Recover the amino acids of this structure.
């Protein structure tokens, strides 16, 4: 199924089950964010000021005559920004940055040009996106050669350092030719302004990853941020979070 249709069908399903569409009355609808492995879909019905419209383009989806009502939706499928693809891209970025600065310490006698010799056994890459003390084999790629497996090693840099790395991976500073943009230079009406009074429903990997961590069926973005900060604290052998003194490293200053 095309990503354009996949997101819209998810939006129809969610809003129909919530009795927000198809009931014969006009109600504020919920936005849908669907996090897959290779891509992320976002679909919502912008509540724009009178006499204003979305910029034209493929992101505009006209859902016509659904229960005698027409809905003008914003939809976008972000290829490469699903959970698995985004994780590999973030790990690859951490690997590239570290090898450019610390080629002599990242692995056992290898150089960045000997990419084919990299392995989880001989190449250890520090990353703020893993809890301190954690080690995990991960595939990384330079984009010009076959992916290799290295060992990602958690650091004490903390949540904010990981956030900066992820924002760089998401190309948050890309040129925005048609404002406003979300990330990667893609036009998107800002949710905080045009979608103030309705829910956002997060599907698929959002539910799969967050529910076991204790977030209930409803939560705020702030609560999600606080959870991420807690998860990056170092832990003892029993899995209990350890306290650590405030330092420039903890605050993400490197």
């Amino acid at each position: 199924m095309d990503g354009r249709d996949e997101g819209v069908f998810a939006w129809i399903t969610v809003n129909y089950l919530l009795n927000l569409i198809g009931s014969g009355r006009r109600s504020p609808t919920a936005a849908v964010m669907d996090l897959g492995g290779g891509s992320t879909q976002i679909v919502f019905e912008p509540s724009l000021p009178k006499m204003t419209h979305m910029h034209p383009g493929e992101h505009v989806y006209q859902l016509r005559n659904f229960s005698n009502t027409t809905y003008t939706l914003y939809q976008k499928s972000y290829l490469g920004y699903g959970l698995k693809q985004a994780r590999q891209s973030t790990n690859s970025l951490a690997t590239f940055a570290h090898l450019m600065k610390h080629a002599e310490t990242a692995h056992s006698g290898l150089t960045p040009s000997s990419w084919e010799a990299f392995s989880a056994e001989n190449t250890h890459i520090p990353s703020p996106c893993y809890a301190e003390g954690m080690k995990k084999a991960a595939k990384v790629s330079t984009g010009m050669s076959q992916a290799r497996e290295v060992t990602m090693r958690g650091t004490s840099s903390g949540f904010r350092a990981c956030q900066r790395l992820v924002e760089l991976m998401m190309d948050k500073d890309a040129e925005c030719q048609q404002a406003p943009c979300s990330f990667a230079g893609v036009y998107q009406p800002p949710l905080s302004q045009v979608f103030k009074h309705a829910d956002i429903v997060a599907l698929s990997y959002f539910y799969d990853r967050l529910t076991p961590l204790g977030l209930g069926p409803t939560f705020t973005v702030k609560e999600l941020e606080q959870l991420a900060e807690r998860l990056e604290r170092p832990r003892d052998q029993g899995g209990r979070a350890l306290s650590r003194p405030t330092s420039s490293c903890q605050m993400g200053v490197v």
In short: The first strand starts at residue 31 and ends at 35. The beta strands are 31-35, 39-44, 60-66, 69-79, 124-127, 135-140, 148-154, 200-204.
